[in-house]
Specification:
Distance between the termini: 52 Å
Strand content: under 5%
Number of strands: 0
Shape: elongated
Order of helices and strands: HHHHHHHHHH
Largest sheet: none
Structural class: mainly alpha
Number of helices: 10
Length: about 180
């Protein structure tokens, strides 16, 4: 049911997709969808949760945080972000679409984005003494957040970049923007 909802929301949009369409695509009865999820809103959350599990987000983030060397950490962080967007670009688009018509989803996604900011800040915090001159911890966190935004990935991929080119660019740009030269 989650896969059917993901496919329908991605192709038709959140508002245009109905629970009966999802049920038909999933090969289940409409009441089954309501019994399992309760609403389209809950399906959006289930789609996000499934994506994060499939992308092994928590495990991959732990590996990034275990890297002590600053440049290697930026390289690993870039690969981490590329994996996130490669595996979940459609999910992010679904959330953005659903946010426009559902205030509860909008509030939920704002909470997810706030949590994202905290988790990504944890990547740069241990490097504070290694920042370029004049870059504060707060600025470093903001720069990291901005450079790793989904919109940056989406726009570059849309302009013909490969995920590998994005990853290399992001790693280099993170190092150059945040880290002092040795």
């Amino acid at each position: 049911m989650v896969a059917a909802a993901r496919e329908r929301f991605a192709t038709q949009g959140f508002v245009a997709t109905t629970v009966p369409q999802i049920a038909k695509r999933a090969g289940v009865a409409v009441p089954t969808v309501y019994w399992a999820f309760g609403s389209k809103r809950a399906l959006v959350k289930a789609i996000r949760d499934e994506w994060l599990a499939e992308a092994r987000t928590g495990e991959r983030l732990v590996r990034v945080l275990a890297i002590d060397e600053a440049s290697a950490r930026m390289d690993a962080a870039a690969a981490f972000m590329a994996n996130q967007w490669l595996t979940g670009a459609d999910v992010v688009a679904i959330q953005l679409d659903a946010m426009r018509s559902d205030a509860t989803i909008a509030a939920d996604v704002r909470g997810v984005l706030a949590e994202r900011a905290l988790r990504l800040r944890a990547i740069v915090e241990p490097l504070e003494g290694l920042f370029r001159a004049g870059v504060t911890m707060s600025q470093a966190a903001d720069i990291f957040l901005a450079l790793t935004a989904f919109e940056v990935y989406r726009d570059l991929i849309g302009r013909g970049w490969t995920t590998d080119a994005y990853t290399q660019w992001l790693a280099r740009t993170l190092r150059e923007s945040l880290l002092a030269r040795p």
